[in-house]
Amino acid sequence: MIRKYLPLVWGALFRKKTRTVFTLLSLTAAFLLLGLLQAVNALFSGGADFLGANRLIVQARTSFTQPLPMRMLPQIEGIRGVEAIGHSQFFGGQYQDERAGFPQFAVGPQRLRDTYPEWVMPEDQWRAFVSTQDGAIVGRILANRYGWEVGDIVPLNSFIWTKADGSRVWEWRVVGIFDGRDDKWAEQAQLMYLNYGQFDEARGAGARGLAGVFVVRVADPLDSARVAAEIDARFANSADETKSQNEADFQLGFLRQFGDIGFIMNAISGAVFFTILILTGFTMSQAVRERIPELAVLKCLGFTDRTVLWLVLAEALLLCTLGAGLGMALASVVTAWLPPEFPPLQPNLRVWVFVAVAVVVLSAAVGLPPALRAMRLKIVDALAGR
Fold this sequence. Notes:
Elements: H1 2-13, H2 17-46, E1 55-60, E2 68-69, H3 72-77, E3 82-90, E4 93-94, E5 104-107, H4 109-115, E6 119-120, H5 123-131, E7 135-139, H6 140-146, E8 153-158, E9 169-180, H7 183-186, E10 192-195, H8 196-202, E11 210-211, E12 213-218, H9 224-234, E13 242-246, H10 247-255, H11 261-290, H12 292-300, H13 305-336, H14 349-375, H15 379-383
Helix pairs in contact: 1-13, 2-11, 2-13, 2-14, 11-14, 13-14
């Protein structure tokens, strides 16, 4: 059935080649933008899905930028259900002249290994990280990007932390290169961990003994809510009140500090969809209006009203599908050619489903009005030009 009517639909679509080509170019650009926007939205909304449900992040109740004293660590460690606990402090270092660098965190080496078993690294490199006070370990992707090897010295200019002597340049010795235990975690191996020993000893006296957040590994994921509540209750009404939440919620909350990314992306996508709706709707209405005598001839030849309706709808669907296909193909090419320092941005299955639904809705919206007009067309009036 489709093969039978496809030449007729194709011929009708390209009856005015110039107009159709320019409409396709507009649709391609619109769906390129739509695909990129939804890829960003999928990255931000689903970027934390892989994180463990058995890990809690304990931050200061007021803000994650407010540090917590290290003396809290043994108190949290003593709560029933806590399997391991670590601490992490964002370093904020700039490498060479890069403005958008990579994240670095000062951590306790052994505690990092206990709380993040998803990171894998040779045993001798774990031992070197523990014993080397100025040691650092880097993710496999990061090491490949900069060509780092074990033994290299990496200078970082911190825009947050100053040494006791006033310098902001810190030198770190690469003692290990870690990877993820599976493909999902391997994609995240784009950060650097620094030995907390040198970091805490070298910074100003007023900042020593502080951690940014505590990372708590819970023995039973189903017990996470109780453990979080007990941690917060233990420090309630103190100078160091806490807010404990699972790791995925913490990551999403951090991203929302920059605004509701999902709402922004969806709002722009809505504006793009409305624009292509107006553009394509005008094109389809004009195309059908110009072919009224031809549609009347089709009815004279025995085409039913319903067949004419579906022919016009098929034309709208073909136009939108071609534009969407070209736009998404370009979006895939653009994301594949992004520089390596960019996040792993790709139109995933969720984005393709979103675009497919958009094509169907758009095709119905722009094709149904002219299709209904064609279906209700009276042969006598059409041939008479009325």
